[in-house]
Amino acid sequence: MGWNRKVLRVNLTAGTCTPEPLNMAWANDYLGSRGLASKYLVEEIDPKVDPLSPDNKMIMATGPLTGTMASTGGRYTVVTKGALTNAIACSNSGGYFGAEMKFAGWDMVVFEGKSPKPVYLYLENDKAELRCAAHLWGKTCWETEETIKASHQDPQIKVSSIGAAGENQVLFACIVNDLHRAAGRSGVGAVMGSKNLKAVAIRGTKGVSGIKDFPAFLQATQAGKKVLADNAVTGQGLPKYGTQVLMNVINEMGALPTRNHRDVQFEEAGKISAEAMHEKRPTDGKAHLVTNAACFGCTIACGRISKIDETHFSVKNSPKYWGASGGLEYEAAWALGAANGVGDLEALHYANMLCNEHGMDPISFGATVGAAMELYDLGILTKEQIGLEAQFGSAEALCKLVEMTAHGEGFGKELGMGSARMCAKYGKPELSMSVKGQEFPAYDSRGIQGMGLTYATSNRGACHLRSYTVASEVLGIPVKTDPLTTDGKPELVKAFQDATSVFDAAGICIFTSFAWTLADVQPQVQAACEGDWSMDKLNLVGERIWNMERQFNLAAGLTAADDDLPPRLKTEPAKTGPAKGLVNGIDKMKPEYYKIRGWDSNGVPDKATLDRLGL
Amino acid sequence: MQKSLHIDPAKCTGCLQCEMACSYEHTGVINPAKSRIKVFNFEHEGRKVPYTCTQCADAWCMNACPVEAIVIDVATGAKIVKEATCVGCKVCTIACPFGTVNYMADVGKVQKCDLCAGDPKCVSACPTAAITYVDADWTGLDRMRAWAAKANTASVSA
Q1: Residues A5, A11, A15, A20: what is their CA dihedral angle, to the nearest 10 degrees?
Q2: Inter-chain touch A103–B32, beta carbons under 8 Å
Q3: Chain A neighbours among B 113-142 (CB < 8 Å)?
Q4: What is the per-residue pLDDT across B70-108, written as a single tens digit (0 to 9) for each?
Q5: pTM for the full predicted model
Q6: B45, A214: Cβ pair inside 8 Å?
Q7: How distant, in Å, are the alpha carbons of A431, A493, A588, B27 from that of A594?
Q8: Looking at residues A564-593, what average pLDDT do you find?
Q9: Per-residue pLDDT tens for A196-212?
Q10: B32: nearest CA in chain A?
Q11: Which member of B16, B23, B128 has the closest CB to residue A207?
Q12: Which terminal CB of chain B, N or C, has fewer other CB atoms within 10 Å?
């Protein structure tokens, strides 16, 4: 059994911590992490609940491969109803925190209610206690981690926390662990903040002992690592360039959303790319990039560790930002950069550091700034309203707005609502580049058609990590498809969505899927877990997770109308590049997708589909 | 030929596969808390450094042990702890200048790297060859080779 078979239930209202056995029947149907925690959530909360009310719950969960030598087996997820989306949220993070939860003997922690005052949860193996966080409230994620380690005199504690953004319930606040890894999207940090839960600190020394068949597991994980090492993307591209390898590639494809999706190519993409991070700066002769880094158990090591230019305007009087820090990753570099027309790499790194420090999703933050810059460009927002000049391309504006947003100061309060609410407030809802209230990531669906369907149908709002068809449409993994047509995309999206659900539920990183298919994951799960984990079973589990999430969203009040793209992507053709003249063909793909899913024309799963999946 | 662990921190990514392999080999549990090799993360410098016992020739821990629980494995040169003999007095943990002998409170014994009887599991687990097991007399070979490669051997004639 890859599971510890133990769940901690924390009632924040009552201040109690109660262990309970893991529901093994559910584990058998939903595997773990994203799948299993979502099952707990849908069983335990009213889908119509206000995400920021005490009646919402928040679950931190590991998978059966978390804390093992399976490559990338260090992931954990935060499952809740999303503050930004009003849909089911599942945000996934690496670092070392997830493995530590497993080593302490827990599979997941369910948080319910709301603490009357700020608290943090301290877990030391079986010992679980809520402690006063009055001295931590107001501190950054970085300070919180440092303070907790110091006060417990234990540098080996792992911490997940919220910063100012989560405390202030910025709707795209995230939860940061290990300084610069984050459960990033959908506002899970705002939910944590609404519960007065500042941090979770864990020290686990029990380890993972319950692997079903250790020799088979070692063999399977070893084989998996070899596949990753031998693959050009996971063995060479990602370690050397990180996800930022995509910046120039996607720009050349005409799929790099620029200036709030007005354009699909950014003239300064090269200046904010992986290649630029390797180049020596004229100011100090040093490269931006210091080294690459791995999360727990990861044999890819795509993570970037960089140092900012100490003479840059954003930090020249702030030595605390001069040390090595996480980033830039592609999504953040895009959202803070191209989405706003900002081509200043150092400014992007600064804004990204502040997102990590204060606990904000840089994708939604950056894209919301992009929307504000368009409103400013149109004269709908003025310098007086924003408090500064916010023209596209302004690195100064970006660097000021990041601090204002995290702290809810001035116009930052409005940015903190996310682009959908902000644009609606100013009478231009169509200018929010989002689905279900969540901003797009870094691929323009006019240039990569499958991503339009991916975004529209993602259960957690616009997201690339629910079915990364970029792998197929751009990189040819597992087969090359034409990014400029909608042909075959509904099948592709469904297949990727279902498979991704299994990768997430297992507790491994979706980046392995550049090299691995489910057939590479299956032997690892089978060796770790009791029961039948055949390919057929895993395929079914993936589809079941997807449909369960869908059912929750429908019960929450979402409809087929929410599976849609902003009008810009459907009516304003790409102006340049290979996709010039194209809009996204979502209206063609969606009905076909519903049909393949076994859903009716309103996007509601048929009874036969639900029966087949045991839902 | 005697061999020695050789660590190149510049290649370490911090994945902790070494810690998992070490703990599993010695305890049957995947548990970095029980690993005899530790990776240290210097976040503000962006450096990660694996660290473990260097197997001193004239070992402080061995000399300090009052019950002769630390002995030499003649095949590998490793200084190994005989758990049955160890009384858990911790004198070796004080004697070791590098901190690489540590007490295990749950079993009342000390533990240290034993080179896995000549097949160190941290080495085979490391995905980047940051940890290798090389000729003990030539741990500097890679560095010599790197400098040799920089030597200017161009002819000075003509």
Answers
A1: -20
A2: yes
A3: 125, 127-128
A4: 999 999 999 999 999 999 999 999 999 999 999 999 999
A5: 0.97
A6: no
A7: 27, 11, 11, 51
A8: 98
A9: 999 999 999 999 998 99
A10: A207
A11: B23
A12: C
